[in-house]
Design brief:
Bound molecules: coenzyme A
CATH superfamily of the largest domain: Acetylglutamate kinase-like
Shape: globular
Distance between the termini: 80 Å
CATH architecture of the largest domain: 3-Layer(aba) Sandwich
Structural class: alpha/beta
Number of helices: 14
CATH class of the largest domain: Alpha Beta
Oligomer: single chain
Largest sheet: 8 strands, mixed
Length: 441
């Protein structure tokens, strides 16, 4: 009879199963967002040895942290009132002071705990270096609905080069929810935003949020894996303001190139290692959609295109187009679609009646803000240019109010209204004062 496996055997078995993950994570950059509630609980003490372990396994760690509970406690002790609206604090002088004191204390807390190594193991005393600094530039959040948010800010830039240098030297980087402006002001920032922007700037392998409750599907079941689009669709079904704060940033980071964003439950003390080193994990994984394709638009895309272009028509970036006009012109459009959502579009109009010097017009070039900067508009234009060549088009023209340099960098040059070639159907809209660009093919 074979003996039941001992605890040691099970550990060895687990170690074998974990080895591919250990290899995969070595050298990987992970940004962890630790909420205020975690810092106050015993989970914080549990998490420290796990962070130490990860760092010794070669994971490059960036730790962002929230301070809301600590700041609330401080303000309460001073009997100072403070307002949090839609997840953002109105940061007056008293609140800023409380944040600065809490951030300093938390930093010292991290530094002391990460200096311990792994107590009661041969790695006791294998201390880790921790660094923090002015890595985040911020700008004021400003006045919204008549409320001046004062020292509350938003992230303007994360200085990823400097962060990379520290990470490559083996330091753990601490990111408090603070940013500094070019004018020398200090701003209170949402920790989730700091972490998401840092993960995007670093092109991190993973971004991890710890949440009170994991997101659920329409049947109330915990979602184990979903694309950013699916998660966005299911977001209104979720409850809890803290979860929503993390979800919004998780979706954005995923769309901006962070390939794996994890939500882990604060109620599971082993959540981090379980997620990273076991096949099934334990949290919710949000992955970037893996497929998308560029194709000719059909009448079914009209709603998607309207959704994409409407904000730009409203703010005057694009010329107005009615639904009827769009339906008539739909055959001229190409779209980039991801999981049923139109995330970029462009149109080509060719004057098919012209006998010589056929000129085409490129119009309505738009990429959804979450998907910009990844070559989609360039792909659409390249596709339309090659389509135009097959139709013997000799030059392409377009009107633009705000993307002049984008087109100039792609071979278009500015022309005056008089000197431009023009397909018959196009009327120059003088009121919009668009610039005209032409590219010979
Ligand atoms: C212009 C636009 C279509 C570019 O979409 P995109 O998919 O991000 O484009 P790509 O990824 O191919 O190119 C990104 C590059 O263009 C630059 N860029 C983006 N908008 C720009 C603008 N208005 N002017 C100059 N450069 C711009 C980006 O900084 C980026 O530069 P980098 O590669 O050096 O980082 C997109 O910003 C958009 O939808 N703008 C609003 C609509 C508009 O103005 N359309 C043009 C008139 S029809």
């Amino acid at each position: 009879m074979v003996d039941a496996p001992s605890t040691n055997d099970l550990a060895i078995q687990w170690f074998r199963e974990a080895s591919p993950y250990i290899k995969a994570h070595r050298g990987a950059t992970m940004v962890l967002c630790l909420p205020d509630t975690l810092m106050e609980s015993t989970l914080f003490d549990n998490l420290i040895p796990d962070l130490t372990l990860l760092s010794h396994l070669g994971v490059r760690l960036v730790l962002g942290f929230g301070l809301r509970a600590q700041v609330d406690a401080k303000l309460q002790a001073q009997q100072a009132e403070s307002r949090v609206i839609d997840g953002r604090r109105v940061t007056d002088d008293a609140a800023l002071n409380a944040i600065l004191t809490s951030a300093g204390k938390m930093r010292a807390n991290f530094e002391s705990k990460l200096s311990m190594g792994l107590p009661n193991t041969p790695m006791a005393g294998a201390r880790l270096s921790v660094c923090s600094g002015n890595f985040v530039t911020a700008q004021p959040y400003g006045v919204h609905d008549g409320i001046d948010y004062q020292h509350t800010g938003t992230v303007r830039q994360v200085h990823s080069q400097e962060l990379r240098v520290h990470l490559a030297s083996g330091n753990i980087v601490l990111l408090p929810p603070l940013g500094y402006s070019l004018t020398g002001d200090i701003f209170n920032l949402p920790a989730e935003e700091v972490c998401a922007e840092a993960a995007i700037a670093l092109n991190a392998d993973k971004l991890v949020f710890f949440v009170d409750q994991l997101p659920v599907d329409v049947d109330g079941q915990i979602i184990r894996e979903a694309s950013a689009n699916t998660m966005e669709r299911l977001a209104p079904k979720q409850t809890g303001e803290a979860l929503m704060r993390s979800l919004t940033r998780a979706v954005k980071a995923s769309r901006k190139g962070v390939s794996r964003v994890h939500l882990l439950s604060l109620s599971d003390p082993n959540a981090l290692l379980r997620e990273l080193f076991t096949r099934d994990g334990g949290g919710t994984l949000i992955t970037a959609e893996r497929w998308e394709h560029l194709r000719a638009a059909t009448i079914q895309d009209v709603n998607g295109i309207i959704k994409l272009i409407e904000p730009l028509q409203n703010n005057g970036t694009l010329a107005p187009r009615t639904r009827e006009q769009l339906e008539l012109d739909i055959a001229h459009f190409v779209v980039c679609e991801r999981e049923g959502m139109v995330i970029a579009c462009a149109a080509l109009f060719v004057d098919t009646q012209a006998e010589s010097d056929i000129v085409g017009e490129i119009a309505c070039v738009v990429t959804h803000p979450d998907y910009r900067g990844q070559g989609r508009a360039a792909d659409l234009i390249a596709h339309l240019e090659s389509k135009a060549r097959t139709q013997n088009v000799s030059a392409l023209m377009l009107f633009s109010t705000r993307a002049a340099h984008w087109f100039i960098e792609r071979g278009y040059s500015q022309k005056t209204e008089d000197s431009m070639p023009r397909p018959k159907k196009i009327d120059y809209d003088k009121q919009r004062n668009s610039k005209v660009f032409v590219k010979p093919l």
